[in-house]
Structure formats: structure tokens, C-alpha cells
Request: fold
Amino acid sequence: MRYSIGNALLVCLSINFGSGLTARVRVRQDAVTVTQTVTSSTPEPTPFNWASGATEQYPIHSSCNATERALLSKGLGDAIKLADHAKQHVLRFGNSSDFYVKYFGTAPTAEVIGWYDRIVSADRGGIWFRCDDIDGNCQIDGYAGHWRGENATQETVICPLSYTTRMPLEGLCGYGYSVAASKLNVYFGSDLIHRLYHLPAIGEGIVEHYADTYDECLELAKNNPAEAYFALDVYAFDIAVPGEGCTGKVPKTESSATDQPTATSAPNTSSTSAAPTECHTHADGTEHCV
Ligand SMILES: *[C@@H]1O[C@H](CO)[C@@H](O)[C@H](O)[C@H]1NC(C)=O
Ligand SMILES: *[C@@H]1O[C@H](CO)[C@@H](O)[C@H](O)[C@H]1NC(C)=O
Ligand SMILES: *[C@@H]1O[C@H](CO)[C@@H](O)[C@H](O)[C@H]1NC(C)=O
Ligand SMILES: *[C@@H]1O[C@H](CO)[C@@H](O)[C@H](O)[C@H]1NC(C)=O
Reply:
């Protein structure tokens, strides 16, 4: 007898029915031998891994000690959380979000979503966050970190000052913070979003054209990505202090006077034109490219 079940061919070699009949009880002893005919013995090939060699976590250099590594991991996690929520907000509301229009004007949402997704999901190969002050800039008063620029375009140094001053995302809207009046680098997460876009592996040499203050950021909204501010604003409104947030207001006095020239000199710069950039590092450790 042959039974074909799926691909397996079962051959029943012998079926013996015992015939021991007793007075009342009939005992049938069936002996069934089943042999599976194996036609091929080649082992299953290991499945093709299309993503082989991927770098999924932001690489933290061995120069970072355990504390620095833990705080930096937390900060990078905050950056991903901010970017991911910003992406979700845009996917949900598109340009019907007042926040969206405020920061990105009429820009197609797919571009904005894409820039956030690069923070969340792009391969991190070649990137390094290091703590060894290899360029000596951490010695400069007030430096909390810097992009290594021409010395290593995919590398960022995070100086000791960052670990004692940058706040966790859980504190968003706390400490007297407001999006409009406070610096991008109050929170480690938004500070690192800013830094990540400097890296070609994430910003592709485009998003690094970054506005430094909230004021500038809004002036340049049409052409210059404002990812970090938008992400803070919507995370604050949607998550941290639901339905309220902490957008705040730009303080009238100081910020506009000094930043105006930069803001008005660049409004026609397209975010996609690879305009030559000149970068300088601010005393607070943030870089600004114009
Ligand atoms: C908003 O997006 C829609 C497409 O979803 C588009 O037709 C409309 O022009 C956009 N409005 C603005 C102000 O960008
Ligand atoms: C690059 O290295 C040189 C020499 O060590 C240093 O002077 C310079 O500041 C470094 N550049 C940056 C952006 O750190
Ligand atoms: C780790 O580095 C920080 C500076 O960022 C320093 O304050 C701390 O003492 C270091 N920890 C150890 C165990 O060396
Ligand atoms: C910027 O745009 C305005 C109006 O669109 C135009 O008049 C001006 O010449 C432009 N400036 C530059 C530097 O391209």
C-alpha cells in the first residue's frame, strides 16, 4: 500500500493482522512498519539575509566610560523617541497640523517623514560617538561636544559637560523650558538630533543646513528643515503635557537683533541645493552652518 501525504512518500511494507481469536475477546495485533523514503539528503540552505552586516545601534566608542555610555545611550534613545513621534504626528495629521505648517510650510510631508525616519531607522554604519576629546575641543570653556567635521565626518565627540547638563526627555516642559524661548540643547535628545543631522550617514549633507534659534528656524521654515524644534513642540503637546505643550513665546528683546542677518541672508536657499556651507561651533557646543 502506498499513501502519498504531501511530499512524503510513505511505504507500508507490511501489515500483519494477528488472528488470535479467543472465546470472547478478540485481540488484534497490528504491526505496521512505516518507512519514509527520503529522496534528497542535501540540507536546507541558510536563508539569504538581505540586511547582513547592518549596524542597528548608534555606535558608542570604547573611549566612553560606563556612565557616559549609559547616559549617551539614553540620550540617543530620546532622539529616536522624539523623531519617531514627530514622524507619527506627520503621518497622522499631515499639513492639517498647525505645527506642521508652522515649521515646514508647504513642504511635502513625505520629505519630512523621511528625514525623521533616517534618525529612527537608517543604518548607523561608520558613525561613532566618542568621549576621548580627540580634537582637544572639550578643553574650550562651555564646549559640550562637537562634530569632527573634516577630521572625521561621521564622528561626534560628546564632552563631559553634556553628561552633567543635558536633560532627559521625561523632563520636557519642566525646568522652566519652552520651545520658543529655550535652547535646542536643553534636552539631550534634541541636542543629539541636531548633531545626528550633521553626519552624512543621517543628514546626507542636506539637513545640516540648520537654523540655530527658534526665531531663525521659523523664518527659514519654508526652505530649511526644522526637525528638532518641530519634534520637541509636538512631543510636548501630544505626549509630555497633553493638549497643552510648552511652545511659549520668543522673548522680545535680545534674540532677533543678533540672529537677523543670518536669517535674512539665507531664505532662498533650497534645502536640496548643496549650497556650500561654513560651520562654526558655538560656545554652548552646538554647531551652526550657513
Ligand atoms: C496640504 O496637502 C494637500 C494634499 O494632501 C494639498 O492638496 C494642499 O495644497 C496642502 N496645503 C498646503 C497649505 O500645503
Ligand atoms: C581637526 O583636527 C585639528 C588638528 O588636531 C584641530 O585643530 C581641529 O580643531 C579639528 N577640527 C575639528 C572640527 O575639531
Ligand atoms: C566617566 O566620565 C565622566 C566624565 O564624562 C567622569 O566624570 C567620571 O568620573 C567617569 N567615570 C569613571 C568611573 O571613570
Ligand atoms: C530671494 O527671493 C526673492 C523673492 O522670491 C527675490 O526677489 C530675491 O532676489 C531672492 N534672493 C536671492 C539671493 O536669490
Remarks:
- Residues 66-93 form the longest helix (28 residues).
- Confidence is low (pLDDT under 50) at residues 1-27, 220-225, 255-290.
- Residues 65, 67-68, 160, 163 surround 2-acetamido-2-deoxy-beta-D-glucopyranose (ligand 3) (CB under 6 Å).
- The radius of gyration is 30 Å.
